[in-house]
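Loading example: each entry is read as two labelled lines plus one structure line.
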Amino acid sequence: MNSNIVLAVFVSAIAFGTPLVLAGLGELLAERSGVLNLGVEGMMLMGAVSAFCVSQKMHGSTAVVLLLAVLASMVAGAAMALIHAFLSITIRVNQIVSGLAITIFAGLIGLSSYLGQVWNIGGVAGHHQFNGIDLFGLQNLPIVGPLIFNQDAFVYASWVLVIAVFYYLYRTRPGLYLRAVGENPSAADAMGINVTAYRYAHTLVGGALAGLGGAYFTLALAPIWTDGLTAGDGWIAIALVIFAFWRPDLLVLGAYLFGVFSALGPTLQTRGITVLPSEFYSALPFLMTVIALAAASTSWANRRVGTPASLGIPYTREEG
Amino acid sequence: MTGPLRVERRLDTPKWLKLAVPLVSILLAAIIVGILLAATGHNPFSTYHQMYSASVTADGALTATFVYATPMLFTGLCAAFAFRMRTWNIGGEGQLYMGAVGASATGLVLGDWPRPLLIIAMVLGGAFAGMLWATIPALLRAYLRTNEILTSLMLNYVAGFFMYYLIYDSSSYWRDLTTPGASVFPTGKTLVANAAWPGITIGTFTLPMGFILGVGLAVGLLVLIRSTRYGFEMRVMGDSPQAANYSGIRTKRKIVSVMAISGGIAGIAGSSQIGDFGHVLDPRGLEQAQYGYTGIVVAALALYNPLAVVLVSLLIGGLTNAGFALEGPSFPTGLVGTMEGIILFTVLGGEILARYRIGLRHRAVAPAAVGTGASS
């Protein structure tokens, strides 16, 4: 019984952690290029609402509709990121303010809510959903079956993405250039790397991944759209990047750890275990984020920290 | 290779530009929103007319606009004050909640005090609670260099859940357990009539006491920033933290005190919600209003100038008022945030335009472009 609860928590931790993995990877790439994107929450919501609209309004086979829904979420996220990129890279608006503006523009009482109402998709369940796949026919194995071999395509895609981003960052030339742009843009520029292009590209990819993370809510977690349904996950994703020290491998661990914090309340509640008030469990991921951020900024951690040196600073070439 | 646009800092901004840019920015935002409205099947002209009527000319519209503007004035000042020093207190939302918790506790405990003292106590109770809540991210920022944007924001959610716990999930002091049906429809205890803040009523228009307090606070903050040593040090820290360090400013204490003051101001927004308007702690209402986050919009649009915050809070208050008054199929709530966002984009972009000269990059700026391929 007890091990069942533990397993149930871990299984739903993967579900709750997946949007964090996706949005976190996106933020990681943007920050590695030196662009701080505080618009993640808004981008996730835009992804969620766009994906849900497609899954509800399109007719066709589930695979095609879901593919289009996923694409729609990425386009929506990237479109928001394009605004952020233009404001913060090209005309050098303060990145913090620009990112907050994106979240207000697209967020809870913004465009995502407006579109949800215009498209009239609230309150009706979606028609197409990602479901668990019985990978290699191993889903009935004890423990690892439900954890690893019975996830949906989204989760497997996120695992592939983590490996891809890791490989890209540390084993490819563009990845090396990306890190150079984030650490020392003028040196990178002198090497002939197009700083602006790198920053734009990674901010856009970051936005697309945030949109994808949002799509996970409406395409896999629950087939329903409500205003502001990401409920702060975008912000936790940004925090994750910091205490994962800008590394994709640590990021995925952190995301599932926070998945556990999010999964704890609902899992215990459905089993009728109410030791602490439900508000405590709801607040837990946010409290733990504060604690983790504080821990990551102690002097012990600071020695190994990997903050990109140019993070948040617009690049201006010193010209004649 | 910085793209086809060339951006140069202006040595000084002409006066006409300082005035023209915000006006043109807002006009541009109105045009963009108009296009969005037209694209989604609304007539922009009639929508704008309705909004104007709902926030200014209709019966009681102006009073309602001030009801929304009052909390935004405080949360706008909260953000503007901290942002001026580049200390990013995004926690106005949670500090407002805690302020409301503090002010309602004060109002409930001291209910038999004489009215003026009771009202002062409520203002201070809210300010103190908001201040304490802001001190958490402030201390972490000052002594561990923990990112205050994220910690202050996370604490908004924590404060929100705490407020829900007080009213919906516990037998706390704030919750009304006596009325019939209190266990089915949980509400907070209503404050005594003496705890209601007096407004100034002129005909059908009522000016809330909180708004007057906020204007006074804005003037005070302006003086503090412009003409005191404290404000000078703030500006130095905002413009160059290193210079501040070298010149012997106690930067850590400064961060804590600025964040605490900022949180205290947001706390008074909570006091005003209890004293001016609600007279009861209403978690759901406070959370749906999102006044704390809107304060960031107000501060950014006011370019962190406290006096400009007063004007902008009325503009955004009017917009929000119109949003709620017209709420329905033809005017979804999401439109308010969308409009705020678009105004922010154009004003932020416009402000840069005023400070920088933007031109097309010429192909012939040779030396810098050597070896960078197609730069234009």
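Chain B touches chain A through 61 residues (CB under 8 Å).
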